[in-house]
Specification:
The complex is a heterotrimer of chains A (212), B (392) and C (224). Chain A has 212 residues and is α/β, with parallel strands linked by helices. Chain A is built from six helices and five strands; from the N terminus they run H-H-H-E-H-E-H-E-H-E-E. In chain A, the strands form two sheets. A three-stranded parallel beta sheet of chain A has the order 1-2-3. Chain C has three domains: 4-66 and 105-168, NADH:ubiquinone oxidoreductase Nqo5 subunit (Beta Polymerase, domain 2); 68-102, no CATH class; 193-224. The chains are: A alpha/beta (212), B alpha+beta (392), C alpha/beta (224).
Chain lengths: 212, 392, 224
C-alpha cells in the first residue's frame, strides 16, 4: 500500500521516513547501474566523453565501467554492430547476470544507421537481443546519453516487484540465454531472432510495433 | 599453400623484412590467449591471437574486421559529395583531417582550386584536430599503463574545448562534415577566431601541465623506454607512417614532402625520435602538439578575407572527367590517402581509403615478439589506432 | 624522381624483354601508371625498390573491371555475285551489321609507390604500378609484392578478401575483414547482398525496388 506523496513529505519534515520495499529496492537498483566497458565505434568516444569531467556520469551512479560482463548491469551498444561482431555481442549479453539492461546508442545500433546498406552491417541490434532504451543521433551527444540513463532509471523505478510487469530476474520463466548467431557462408545464421524481433515481412505496410 | 610456395619470395633472393620466428621448446605447452574483440585495452573491437610461453609472447596474429562497415562499397554506390559524411566516421577522432584528405583527392581528380581563406581554415582545423588527437592518444596510452583517469581526464578537458570550436563551426562535435571540394562548407561564425585564439593561447599551459605530470615520470620511463622498438628499415618497408615512423628517426612528414595546402608558409619543425620505442612516440606526440600550436599561432592572425569555395566547384551534379587520382595528407595517425577512379559518372568507380591505422599495425607482431604480455597492451596503445579506420 | 614514361624506358633498358606498358591518366592529376605483366612483376618491383629508389609502398588496392559488352554498327562492303537482268554479275553491296564485342574484364591490383629515401626535398607524384589478372573467374592469380614491400601484406590480404585475387608467394593469405567461413568477395561489382530485407517505414529508390521484389516473392510463395 503506497503512502500518499504529500503525507510522505510532511512526515519527512518531521524526520520520519516512510517507504515501501518496492521503492527502496528500485531506488537502490536505479542508482547503481554499472555499465559494461564496451565500445564498438564512434559512439564509444562520446560514451567516454560522458564519463569525463565535463559531463560526469558518476552523478548518476554509473561511473563504474566494468570490464567483465559478469559484473555489469547495463550494456551500452555504442556504435555499429557488424555481422562479424554480432555473435560476440549476443554472447556478452548472455554472460551478463540479471537484472540486465541494454541501451542502443546511436543510429547504427538502432538500425544500421548510415551504414545500413552495407553487406557486413547488422541492421539493428534488436534483431538479436531486447533493447530497453534507444538513443537517436550520429553520434548522440553526451547529454543524450545522460538522458537515456535517466530514462532507464525511470524505467527501473517504475518496475513492480510482482505481477506481469516484474523485472526479468524475478521471473523464473523469463528467457535467459539468447541464441548466438553463427557466421555462415553468405550471412549470419539465423539472420534474425524472431523471438525478440517479431516484425512482419515487408508486405505489411502498416507500422509494426517495436521489438520486445 | 605449400611451404615451398610461401618461401618462394624469399628464396628468389629478395631482401624481405619478416618478423622473427621464435623457437619454442614445447609447442603444446603454449598458452593461447584471444585478446579481444571485447577487451578493455583494445579501444574498440580488435582481436589479437597471442601465443604465450610463460609471460613471453611467441606468436601474435591480429584479427581485423569487427568494425568493417563497408565504407568503400557504400561510396561506390553514391555520389562524390555523399561520401563526405562517411569520411567523418573513418577516424572518428579526426573528422576534419579525413574531410581534407578526401577533398584533396577529389580536387586533384577534378582540377579544382581552393581559395586562400579556405586553405587557412583547413590548416587551422587540421592542427586543432592534431592537438586533440595527440592529447587523447597520450591519455589512452596512460590509461593502458594503469594511470586510470587523470591523464585522460586532462586530455578530454582540452578536447572538449576544441570540440566546442568545431561545433560552433560545423554544427557537430565529432562528425564535422565541413570540407567541400574546392573549399569549405560555411564561413567562420562571428567571434570564432577570437575564441580560437584564446583557446590556442592556453594550449601551451596544458601541454606543460601534461609534461610535468608524465615526461619525467619514473613509471612511464621504466615501462616505455626500450619497449616495442621498431627499426627504421623495417618501418619504411612496412609503410609505417606518422608518429610511428618519425619516432624511428626517419624524416618523412607529408606536410613537408608534398607541400599540400599552404603548409609552406608556416615555419614549423618535424620532431624526430631516436630509439623508436614507446617513450619516443609519446614524446613526439607532445612535441608535435607544440609545433601545431606554433602553426596555429601563425595562421590565426594571417587569415585573409575572401570566398571560401571555388566558384568552379559544383555541389550538385558533380561529375569529374574519367581518370584517377591519389591524394594524401598527414593525418594525426599517419599518412591518410584517398584513391579515386572516375568513369565520368556521378559516382566514383573505385573509392579507396589508405588507412594509416591498418598499415601501422602491420609491424605489431614484430614489435611484440619476445616481450611480456603486459607490454603488448602498451605497444598496441602506442601505435594510436582507431578501429573505424582500420576496418573501414 | 623520374616520370612514369622515363621509368618505362629505364626499365626496358635494364631488363630487356620485360612486359611493361604505360597507362596514361587523362585527369588533371596526371598520375600515369605502369602496367606490368604478372610474370615480370616481382623483378620489376625489386628493381623499383632497390635501384629506382621507390622504397615505400603507400597504397595497394584492387579494382574490378567487369566484362564490357559493346555493340557497334559496322558497314561492310562485299563483292557479291548477283543476277542482274538475268546475267550473273559481281556487284558491290554494302551491308550494315551490328557487331557485339565483349571486352573481357579483369581484376587489377594497384600499388602506389613513393620514395622515402629522397626525403622531404624532392616532391614527386606517386608511381602507380598495376597488375591485371587474366580474367575475373578462374585465372585470378598474381604474384604477391609483399616480399618486396611489407606494407602490402595486409592490403593484399584485404584485396584477396574483398576481390578474390589470389596472391602467390604471400606468406599468410587469409581473409582480413570478413569471417573465415564467408565465401563471397563483396567488393566485386557483381556481388549480391544476402537477402536480409525486412522492413522499411519509408522505402525509396533501391530499397523500394527490393521491397517490391520481396512483395512479389512472398505473393508467389503464398500462391503455391
Amino acid at each position: 500500500m503506497a503512502v500518499e506523496s504529500n503525507l510522505k513529505i510532511e512526515l519527512g519534515k518531521q524526520g520520519v521516513f516512510v517507504t515501501t520495499l518496492n521503492e527502496l529496492y528500485n531506488w537502490g537498483r536505479r542508482n547503481s547501474v554499472w555499465p559494461m566497458q564496451f565500445g564498438l565505434a564512434c559512439c564509444a568516444i562520446e560514451m567516454i566523453a560522458t564519463t569525463m569531467a565535463r559531463y560526469d556520469l558518476a552523478r548518476f551512479g554509473a561511473e563504474v565501467f566494468r570490464p567483465s560482463p559478469r559484473q555489469a548491469d547495463l550494456m551500452i551498444i555504442s556504435g555499429t554492430v557488424t555481422k562479424k561482431m554480432a555473435p560476440q555481442v549476443v554472447r556478452l549479453y548472455n554472460q551478463m547476470a540479471e537484472p540486465r539492461y541494454v541501451i542502443a546508442m546511436g543510429a547504427c545500433a538502432i538500425s544500421g544507421g548510415p551504414f545500413k546498406q552495407g553487406y557486413n552491417v547488422l541492421k539493428g541490434i534488436d534483431r538479436y537481443i531486447p533493447v530497453d532504451v534507444h538513443i537517436p543521433g550520429c553520434p548522440p551527444r553526451p547529454e543524450a546519453l545522460i538522458h537515456a540513463f535517466m530514462t532507464l532509471q525511470k524505467k527501473i523505478a517504475a518496475q513492480p516487484l510482482t505481477g506481469e510487469e516484474r523485472p526479468r530476474h524475478l521471473d523464473a520463466s523469463a528467457q535467459g540465454e539468447f541464441p548466438v548467431p553463427e557466421p555462415g557462408a553468405h550471412d549470419l545464421e539465423p539472420p534474425v531472432n524472431r523471438l525478440v524481433w517479431p516484425l512482419p515481412a515487408p508486405t505489411v505496410a502498416a507500422p509494426a510495433k517495436e521489438g520486445a | 599453400m605449400t611451404t615451398a610456395e610461401m618461401k618462394s619470395g624469399i628464396d628468389s633472393g629478395i631482401k624481405s623484412y619478416l618478423p622473427p620466428v621464435i623457437e619454442v621448446e614445447a609447442e603444446n605447452e603454449l598458452l593461447e590467449v584471444a585478446m579481444g574483440p571485447h577487451h578493455p585495452s583494445t579501444h574498440g573491437v580488435f582481436r589479437m591471437d597471442v601465443a604465450l610461453d610463460g609471460e613471453r609472447v611467441v606468436r601474435l596474429k591480429p584479427v581485423f574486421g569487427y568494425l568493417h562497415r563497408n565504407h568503400e562499397k557504400l561510396a561506390e554506390g553514391t555520389t562524390y559529395l555523399a561520401s563526405m559524411p562517411y569520411t567523418d566516421r573513418l577516424d572518428y577522432f579526426c573528422s576534419m583531417t579525413n574531410n581534407w584528405a578526401y577533398a584533396l583527392a577529389v580536387e586533384k581528380l577534378a582540377g579544382l582550386e581552393v581559395p586562400e581563406r579556405a586553405e587557412y581554415i583547413r590548416v587551422i582545423t587540421a592542427e586543432l584536430t592534431r592537438v586533440q588527437n595527440h592529447a587523447s592518444a597520450i591519455g589512452f596510452l596512460m590509461q593502458e599503463m594503469g594511470a586510470s583517469g587523470t591523464p585522460l581526464m586532462y586530455a578530454f578537458r582540452e578536447r572538449e574545448k576544441i570540440l566546442d570550436l568545431f561545433e560552433a563551426l560545423s554544427g557537430s562535435r565529432m562528425m564535422c562534415n565541413y570540407m567541400r571540394f574546392g573549399g569549405c562548407r560555411v564561413d567562420l561564425p562571428e567571434g570564432w577566431l577570437e575564441r580560437t585564439k584564446k583557446i590556442v593561447a592556453e594550449l601551451p599551459r596544458f601541454i606543460d601541465e601534461m609534461e610535468a605530470l608524465l615526461t619525467g615520470n619514473e613509471i612511464l620511463m621504466a615501462r616505455a623506454q626500450g619497449v616495442g622498438v621498431l627499426s627504421p628499415e623495417l618501418a619504411v618497408n612496412a609503410g609505417v607512417t606518422g608518429v610511428m615512423l618519425r619516432a624511428t628517426g626517419v624524416n618523412y612528414d607529408v606536410r613537408k614532402v608534398d607541400h599540400y595546402g599552404i603548409y609552406d608558409r608556416f615555419s614549423f619543425r618535424v620532431p624526430l625520435g631516436e630509439h623508436g620505442d614507446i617513450y619516443d612516440r609519446y614524446m613526439l606526440r607532445v612535441l608535435e602538439m607544440r609545433e601545431s600550436v606554433k602553426i596555429l599561432e601563425q595562421a590565426l592572425p594571417q587569415i585573409p578575407d575572401g570566398p571560401i569555395l571555388d566558384p568552379k566547384s559544383k555541389p550538385r551534379g558533380f561529375r569529374p572527367k574519367p581518370g584517377e587520382a591519389y591524394g594524401r595528407i598527414e593525418a594525426p595517425k599517419g599518412e591518410l590517402g584517398f584513391y579515386l577512379i572516375s568513369d565520368g559518372s556521378g559516382n566514383p568507380y573505385r573509392y579507396r581509403v589508405r588507412p594509416p591505422s591498418l598499415i601501422n599495425l602491420t609491424i605489431l607482431e614484430d614489435m611484440c615478439l619476445g616481450q611480456n604480455v603486459a607490454d603488448v597492451v602498451l605497444i598496441f596503445g602506442s601505435v594510436d589506432i582507431v578501429l573505424g579506420e582500420v576496418d573501414r | 624522381m623520374k616520370s612514369a614514361a622515363e621509368l618505362l624506358d629505364e626499365l626496358q633498358g635494364a631488363m630487356p624483354g620485360v612486359k611493361l606498358a604505360l597507362a596514361t591518366n587523362p585527369s588533371p592529376s596526371a598520375q600515369h601508371s605502369l602496367v606490368v605483366a604478372a610474370e615480370d612483376a616481382l623483378r620489376v618491383a625489386v628493381y623499383l625498390r632497390d635501384v629506382a629508389g621507390y622504397d615505400y609502398c603507400s597504397n595497394a588496392t584492387g579494382v574490378d573491371w567487369l566484362d564490357k559488352e559493346t555493340t557497334e554498327k559496322v558497314k561492310t562492303t562485299r563483292r557479291v555475285k548477283k543476277e542482274v537482268d538475268g546475267v550473273e554479275q559481281e556487284v558491290d553491296e554494302t551491308v550494315e551489321e551490328t557487331v557485339k564485342r565483349v571486352e573481357p574484364g579483369c581484376l587489377e591490383a594497384v600499388y602506389h609507390l613513393y620514395s622515402m629515401r629522397q626525403g622531404p626535398h624532392d616532391p614527386h607524384p606517386p608511381l602507380v604500378l598495376r597488375m591485371r589478372t587474366a580474367n575475373r573467374t578462374d585465372r585470378v592469380e598474381l604474384p604477391s609484392l609483399s616480399p618486396v614491400w611489407r606494407a602490402a601484406e595486409f592490403q593484399e590480404r584485404e584485396i584477396f578478401d574483398l576481390y578474390g585475387i589470389v596472391f602467390k608467394g604471400h606468406r599468410d593469405l587469409r581473409r582480413l575483414l570478413m569471417w573465415d567461413e564467408f565465401e563471397d568477395h563483396p567488393m566485386r561489382r557483381d556481388y549480391v547482398d544476402p537477402d536480409d530485407f525486412e522492413y522499411e517505414p519509408t522505402p525509396h529508390d533501391e530499397v523500394l525496388k527490393r521491397a517490391e521484389e520481396h512483395r512479389a516473392k512472398l505473393a508467389a510463395e503464398g500462391a503455391r
